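Example S7 (structure tokens).
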């Protein structure tokens, strides 16, 4: 593939979604290459995993900056130095300023472990269980200044099962996340999903009603 988008992944911790993007980008036909992984926490496990994969892994320790602007300027400088075209947030826990987000307008995506716009923010799985939803899931969206907001690129649904704990549900959703993120990024980078103002123009994905998830399942 001739042109590959240079993606910078932002993480704060474990980095399992990061690993799924790194793995997908190994395919010569994948439209992205992973230019770097940046973490606001030097001790993030994901940094070690990225290094082991031969991806430049850099800590920009947020505690060493006096202001959010200074932290974001340092982040921007690293992204620029590594010629990053698009940011993929993957478990990045810092809220980015509107100024930073607008600099990366339509060039920053995020994964969130709920079917947005439901359950934005933290403790999503506990809140989903408390609300009694039957279907949970995850969303990849284009980042806008409001937290967990922005045009939705793709979603995956998973059932909530009797006896689920937040941990069990999180594990089931995470498996879906690992498949959804590379898929959604590819849709976005190949132009099959593109933003149109506040929303997203459709993706020319063939409709397969059979594959829609009903939970509890349909009978007969
Ligand atoms: C994922 O559930 C992601 O959706 C959320 O934070 C978690 C990060 O997990 N934003 P990992 O670091 O990718 O393993």
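Recovered sequence:
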């Amino acid at each position: 593939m001739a042109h590959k988008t240079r993606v910078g992944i932002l993480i704060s911790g474990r980095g399992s979604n990061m690993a799924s993007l790194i793995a997908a980008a190994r395919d010569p036909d994948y439209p992205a290459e992973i230019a770097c992984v940046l973490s606001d926490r030097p001790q993030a496990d994901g940094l070690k995993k990225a290094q082991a994969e031969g991806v430049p892994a850099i800590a920009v320790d947020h505690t060493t900056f006096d202001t959010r602007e200074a932290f974001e300027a340092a982040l921007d400088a690293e992204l620029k130095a590594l010629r990053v075209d698009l940011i993929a947030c993957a478990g990045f826990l810092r809220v980015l300023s509107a100024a930073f987000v607008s600099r990366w307008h339509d060039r920053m995506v995020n994964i969130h472990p709920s079917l947005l716009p439901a359950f934005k923010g933290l403790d999503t799985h506990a809140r989903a269980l408390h609300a009694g939803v039957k279907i949970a899931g995850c969303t990849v969206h284009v980042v806008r200044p409001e937290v967990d907001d922005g045009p939705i690129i793709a979603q995956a649904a998973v059932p909530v099962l009797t006896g689920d704990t937040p941990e069990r549900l999180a594990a089931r959703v995470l498996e879906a996340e690992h498949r959804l993120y590379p898929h959604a990024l590819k849709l976005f980078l190949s132009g099959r999903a593109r933003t149109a103002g506040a929303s997203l123009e459709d993706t020319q994905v063939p409709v397969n009603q059979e594959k829609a998830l009903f939970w509890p399942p349909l009978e007969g």
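Notes on this example. Residues 141 and 152 are 4 Å apart (CA to CA).
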